[in-house]
Specification:
single chain, alpha+beta, Rossmann fold, D-amino Acid Aminotransferase, Chain A, domain 1, six-stranded antiparallel beta sheet, four-stranded parallel beta sheet, 9 helices, 14 strands, 24% helix, globular
Length: 344
Amino acid sequence: MNILLSSVGRRPYLVRWFRDALAENRVEGRVIAADVDPFAPSRPFADAFVQAPTVVDPSYEDWLRQTLVDHDVDLAVSINDFELSTWAMLPDADDWSALVRLDADTQRLIEDKYSTSQALSEAQVPSPVTWLGSEPPAEGDAAGPFVTKGRYGSASRGLRFVDRAGLADALREAAQEVTTRQGVPAARQDEVAPEELLVIQEKIEGVEFGLDVVCDLDGRFAGVLARRKIAMRSGETDRAVSVDSAPFEELARGIAEAIPHPGTIDVDVFVDDDANPFVIDINPRFGGGYPFSHMAGARVPNCYVAWKLGREPAAQWLRSGADVVAGKFVEIAAVNGEDTRAHS
């Protein structure tokens, strides 16, 4: 089995873990890393590297098709939101059977935080009340505090925490950071008003958790992994402690029903003082929080390989032990040669 990890950039641990997944499934294969950056830190950890064009490059679709053929790829996983958006819009054809991706309608829904909040509400999955930036809550509707976000947000663009008095100023500032669904900065396009690219949510006070809601590659719910966030850095979990996932299983099943998906999705949840959970955000990919579940014993890459082989994954691969505290740190690897290989 050959695996393509696209836009894997600064996440060499995923390359290592997918190589481990081949070994633990007792199948031979290679892990190919792809990235727009020829000096991506993941490059020396992979069995091969392919430089990719940007997803907005007219050659991207041909590049992807040729890469899948040239490397005889059986399983392709992307770590990039905008690339996953492009994958979802590709036709349902054998050319793209290796791609782990949402269908086009679900991808559109999950990329739009306003539509996601509506879908969760309709499925009775608890989430904060959400307004469009162009239609902020009236004085009598909500007192605040509030959170502003990019409607098609990535990397915490447009994120502000404000009270009622500061809401208008926060919206003006956030509008300078947000992008369209295609990743075009609001200031560089004139098709949509910047306010339409923002959402406002009621701010939930409580403890923040991250969940990996895992389905098999046909979209059937398989399990949930949970951790309590300790510290964040640049919008990504930097330190966390694994927790018992059982209290989150009902919530996770509801999310999987409202947002059908293959593989794992990354979910942010706040639990208030009355132990009520609220889904804050969803990213349809391996998120920055997954490594904490992996360090606590989960092996989701192993599951991907098993499912692709038509096998039932080992039950322990979808479990993580509680009370494992982990933190991210900086490593460095030489990336200047085709034959340079880094070792974990």
